[in-house]
Amino acid sequence: MIHALLALALQAAPADPCQVDNRAMMDLGYHAFDQDPEGGWRELARRPGCEARAADLIRDHRSYAQGRMSILYWHEGQMRAGLDQTGEAIRLFEQSRKPDDQFGWNPYVDATIAFLRGDRGALTAARERLAALPKPADFEERTLPNGFRLSWPPNLQVVDGLVRCFGRPYSEAYGGAPECRGEAAPR
Fold this sequence. Notes:
Helix content is about 60%, strand content about 0%. It has about 190 residues and is mainly α.
C-alpha cells in the first residue's frame, strides 16, 4: 500500500519548470550557450520563475569554461539585477569591463552601475561619455539576423532607457517598459 501511494505521489508531482540537463549546458560552446536567442541560458531565462536558475547556470558555465568571458559576467549581472540582487549584479558588472575598450563598453557598464546605485549624476555623465564616442570609419549600422540593431554608439538606446526610467526597477528600465525604450505606452 505504501509503495502504491509513493508511486502515485511521484506521478502527481509537477515537473520542475527550471530543470535543464546541466552537463549538456556545460558542454555547449560559447555561442550556443550565450548568443543563441532560442537556446542556452536564454531559453531557461524566458521560463517564468527560472531567472535565478538561469543566473546560476551562467555562473556555472563561466566557471566550467575556465575562461574570463566578460560577456558572461555581464549577462549573469543582468539576471541578478532583474532579481533585485543589486550588490551581486554590480560586482559582476564591474568584472565585465574591457581593458582595451574602443567601442564604449566601459561607459555602458558605468551607466548601468550608476543606475543600480541610484546615482543620476554618474548615470548622466556615463551617458555623455558614451554619446561622445567618435564613430569608427569602418562601422556599418545594420540589423543582425537575430533582429538586434547595430547602431553607433552601441548601447546608447539602452542607457537612454535607464535615464528615462531612472528610479524604476532595472527589469523595467532595461527594456521591459515601452516608455523606457522610448516608445509610447500602450493605451
